[in-house]
Write a structure and sequence with these properties.
170 residues, mainly alpha, globular
Length: 170
């Protein structure tokens, strides 16, 4: 029965409906919790609102300049070292809140970006170039270099594992 509903209206709308019903039930049971949740949502919305035009701009630019052929070539199934390189250094160089990257990564995935490259990109966001001098100051060069190298190596390992697990699931 749920599969029929999902096929008819789509998983996103089904999830939204379930969440609205859950909030309605919470509102009827305990209005204070409902009110606090709505206020937290509105606060978060106002925080991300200024960033949304930037994200939609990046998505627009990716739609204009990154066609599916190019994404498939550099970040698709047959992409090799270049795909790993782009994912690793793209993740390291990316800034801003992580959740703002999700729409762009989703758009790139629809155009053919491999799941392993998405996982690698997200993993490498933990390497923060602006904080490197502080890390070197507190922990020294050897620790910083070894940790950074291991994070890059394990980002690729993580990407490969994610790709395998998703293939097994399908």
């Amino acid at each position: 029965m749920i599969r029929k509903i999902l096929n008819k209206i789509g998983a996103q709308w089904f999830f939204l409906t379930i969440m609205c019903v859950a909030y309605l039930i919470v509102g009827l049971v305990n209005f204070t919790i409902f009110e606090n949740t709505i206020l937290a949502f509105v606060g978060l919305f106002w925080k991300i609102l200024p960033i949304l035009p930037l994200i939609f701009g990046l998505i627009l630019l990716s739609n204009l300049f990154l066609d599916p052929k190019r994404i498939t070539k550099y970040l698709g199934r047959k992409a090799g070292f270049k795909g790993w390189f782009i994912s690793i250094f793209g993740g390291i160089l990316s800034t801003g809140p992580i959740y703002m990257w999700y729409p762009l990564l989703s758009d790139l995935k629809e155009k053919g970006m491999k799941n392993s490259f998405i996982a690698t990109f997200l993993y490498n966001r933990a390497i923060k170039l602006p904080l490197m001098p502080m890390m070197i100051f507190y922990f020294g060069w050897p620790f910083t270099l070894v940790l950074t190298a291991l994070m890059i190596i394990f980002s690729v390992t993580n990407g490969l594992i994610v790709e395998k697990l998703i293939k097994v699931r399908k």
